[in-house]
C-alpha cells in the first residue's frame, strides 16, 4: 500500500512539474525554478557522497565548475600554447561538449578519489576544499584558455534534431525548464538504480560501519572512488547545463557558497534519502524569491533563511523527508516497517565483492 502511495505521489509530482509551464506565465519565477533545478541536480550528486557513503566533500563545486568550463570551451573552441606548441580545438556541437564535460568531471573525480581516500574525516574535507580552490585559481589566471575574470561569453545553446521537425533550439525559459527537468529525472533514476544495486548496498555498509564492512571483504577504496566518479560526473552535467543556460561563465562559478548551498539542500532535505535533496533544493532555492515578493529587506531575507535552516536542523535533525516519512508511518499505524531507503549495518551477501 505504501509503495502504491509513493508511486502515485511521484507520478502526481512529475505530472505537476511537466504541466507547470503551460499555466505559469511568470517567466522570472520559471527562471528561479530552472536555477533551483540545476542546483538540485548538483545536490543529488553530493548526496551520493555525503548521504550514502558518509564522506563530506566541501569542494564539490569544483566538479560543477569543471563541467561548466569544459562544456563551454569545447563548444566555443580554443587555441592555447603549451611549451610554445599551439594546441587548437575547433568548436564542437553542444551535445558533444556536454558529454565531454561529464566525462572530464568524472575523470577528475576518479583522480581525487584515488589520491584522497587514503585519508578520512577532516583530511578528506581539506583535500576537497584545496582541489576546489586550485581549480578556481586556474580558471582565474589561465587567461589564454579561460579569459580569467573577463569570462567566457556567447556560449552556444543546445540544439536537438527530431525527425520530421528538424532542429529544435533549447533557448528561452520554457525549453530550458524542460531540459533541466529531464536532466533531474535522469539523475534521480541513475542514483536510485546505483543505491539499490550491489555497489550501493556496499556504500551504505561502509557508511554505517566501515570496520565491519571491511572485515567481510568489501573494498573500501573501490566503492568510495566509484561514488566519487558518479557524483563528480553528475555535478559536471549540472555545471554544463548551467553554462549553456546562462551562456556566460566566470571563475565565480567556483565560489564556496555554492558548495554550502548544496550541503544545506542535502542536510535539511534529508541526507541518505533520494527525495531529500529535491525537497531541500525546492525550499532553499525558491525561499529567497518568495521572501523578496513580500518586499522584505535583503538583510532580513538572509536572516529568515538562516533561522529557518537552524530550526529545521534543530527540530528535524534527520531532515524533512525522514521526519515526514516517520510521521506518515505513525499516522497510518505502521510500526516495525523498514525505512524506504536502504539503511542498517548488516552487510548483505550480495554487497560483498
Number of domains: 1
Number of strands: 6
How many H/I helices? 14
Strand and helix order: HHHEEHHHEEEHHHHEHHHH
Shape: globular
Given helix and strand content, the structural type is: mainly alpha
Mean model confidence by pLDDT: 85
Terminal CA distance reads 34 Å
Sketch the major β-sheet.
Answer: 2 strands, antiparallel
- Strand order, main sheet: write it out: 1-2
Low-confidence stretches: 335-340
Describe the structure.
One of its GO terms (cellular component) is plasma membrane. It is found in: Cell membrane. Its main location: membrane. With about 350 residues, this protein is mainly alpha-helical. The chain has one domain (about 1-350). Helices cover about 70% and strands about 5% of the residues. It has helices at about 1-25, 25-50, 60-75, 95-115, 120-140, 145, 175-195, 200-210, 210-215, 220-245, 255-270, 275-295, 300-315, 320-330, and strands at about 80, 85-90, 150-155, 160, 165-170, 250. The strands form 3 sheets. It has a two-stranded antiparallel ribbon. Helix 2 (about 25-50) packs antiparallel against helix 12 (about 275-295).
Amino acid at each position: 500500500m505504501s509503495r502504491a502511495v509513493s508511486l502515485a505521489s511521484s507520478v502526481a509530482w512529475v505530472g505537476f512539474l511537466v504541466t507547470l509551464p503551460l499555466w505559469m506565465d511568470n517567466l522570472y519565477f520559471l527562471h528561479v525554478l530552472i536555477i533551483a533545478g540545476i542546483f538540485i541536480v548538483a545536490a543529488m550528486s553530493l548526496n551520493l557522497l555525503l548521504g550514502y557513503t558518509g564522506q563530506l566533500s566541501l569542494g564539490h563545486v569544483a566538479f560543477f565548475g569543471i563541467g561548466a568550463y569544459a562544456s563551454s570551451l569545447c563548444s566555443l573552441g580554443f587555441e592555447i600554447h603549451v611549451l610554445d606548441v599551439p594546441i587548437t580545438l575547433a568548436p564542437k556541437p553542444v551535445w558533444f561538449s556536454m558529454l565531454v564535460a561529464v566525462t572530464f568531471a568524472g575523470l577528475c573525480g576518479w583522480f581525487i578519489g584515488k589520491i584522497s581516500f587514503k585519508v578520512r574525516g577532516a583530511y578528506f574535507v581539506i583535500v576537497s576544499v584545496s582541489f576546489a580552490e586550485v581549480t578556481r585559481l586556474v580558471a582565474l589566471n589561465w587567461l589564454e584558455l579561460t579569459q580569467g575574470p573577463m569570462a567566457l561569453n556567447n556560449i552556444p545553446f543546445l540544439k536537438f534534431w527530431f525527425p520530421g521537425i528538424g532542429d529544435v533550439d533549447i533557448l528561452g525559459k520554457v525549453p530550458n525548464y524542460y531540459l533541466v527537468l529531464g536532466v533531474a529525472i535522469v539523475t534521480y533514476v541513475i542514483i536510485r538504480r546505483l543505491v539499490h544495486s550491489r555497489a550501493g548496498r556496499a556504500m551504505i555498509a561502509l557508511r554505517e560501519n566501515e570496520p565491519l564492512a571491511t572485515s567481510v571483504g568489501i573494498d573500501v577504496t573501490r566503492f568510495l572512488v566509484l561514488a566519487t566518479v558518479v557524483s563528480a560526473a553528475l555535478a559536471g552535467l549540472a555545471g554544463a547545463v548551467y553554462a549553456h543556460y546562462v551562456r556566460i561563465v566566470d571563475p565565480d562559478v567556483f565560489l564556496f557558497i555554492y558548495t554550502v548551498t548544496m550541503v544545506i539542500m542535502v542536510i535539511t532535505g534529508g541526507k541518505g534519502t533520494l527525495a531529500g535533496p529535491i525537497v531541500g533544493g525546492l525550499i532553499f532555492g525558491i525561499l529567497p524569491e518568495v521572501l523578496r515578493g513580500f518586499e522584505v529587506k535583503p538583510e532580513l531575507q538572509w536572516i529568515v533563511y538562516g533561522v529557518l535552516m537552524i530550526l529545521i536542523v534543530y527540530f528535524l535533525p534527520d531532515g524533512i523527508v525522514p521526519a515526514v516519512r516517520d510521521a506518515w508511518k505513525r499516522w497510518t499505524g505502521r510500526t516495525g516497517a523498514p525505512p524506504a531507503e536502504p539503511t542498517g549495518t548488516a552487510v548483505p551477501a550480495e554487497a560483498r565483492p
